[in-house]
Amino acid sequence: MSARGRSYRYVGPVELKAAVRPGSCGCRISSAAEFGDWIAGRSATEPAEPFTFVVGADGVLRLAPRRSEHVACAGGAMVLSAGEVGFVREGDRWAVTEVSNQSTGYCPDTGSWSEVARALDEGLERPSGFTHEVVFRRCPGCQEHNIVREDDFVCVFCGSDLPETWNVDPTA
């Protein structure tokens, strides 16, 4: 855990992390003005769907187009959270309409919301929590990563019971 919260290392396919180019990462957004500049450079249709986001180890939000890999958005580094975020224009400002921890590369726990909230509070209106929470677990039997649906803590790959607490990264 960092001083801010749990850090998540990339646990997805190694070939995706290997493809991350040095110096490449999502756009750093630390204020409403920076977000305004960034969103102004997007196509008119892009804001209609969520963007890829990470909260870096420094606590700063980074954004990339939706189909970007989270590990590329993070520049291959550890994160405090990752997922997808959608925005809507409300009058003269932008607000977050939806935000999830849906990142199968980092598999952040739902408790990472506090880091997302802190990063979004730098000038963007936001909901009070994830609008879509994803529960990730690693199977102790077959070691596969699972998404828990409807509180059914059973591995979809081998049928083993999954733990109640987050365990995706065995080194965390």
Instruction: Write down the oligomeric state.
Output: single chain
The tally of beta strands, per DSSP, is: 7
Strand % is: 15-25%
Distinct helical segment count: 4
Which labels suit this protein?
single chain, 172 residues, alpha+beta, 2 domains, five-stranded antiparallel β-sheet, two-stranded antiparallel ribbon
Structure commentary:
- The chain is of the alpha+beta class and 172 residues long.
- It folds into 2 domains: 120 residues, no CATH class; 38 residues.
- 15% of the residues lie in helices and 24% in strands.
- It has 4 helices and 7 strands; from the N terminus they run αβαββαββαββ.
- β6 and β7 form a beta hairpin.
- The protein is globular.
Set out the fold topology:
Elements: H1 14-18, E1 27-29, H2 32-40, E2 51-56, E3 61-64, H3 70-73, E4 79-90, E5 93-100, H4 113-120, E6 135-138, E7 145-148
Antiparallel strand pairs: 1-3, 2-3, 2-4, 4-5, 6-7
Quick recap of the structure?
The chain is an alpha+beta fold and 172 residues long. It has helices spanning 14-18, 32-40, 70-73, 113-120; strands at residues 27-29, 51-56, 61-64, 79-90, 93-100, 135-138, 145-148. It is globular.
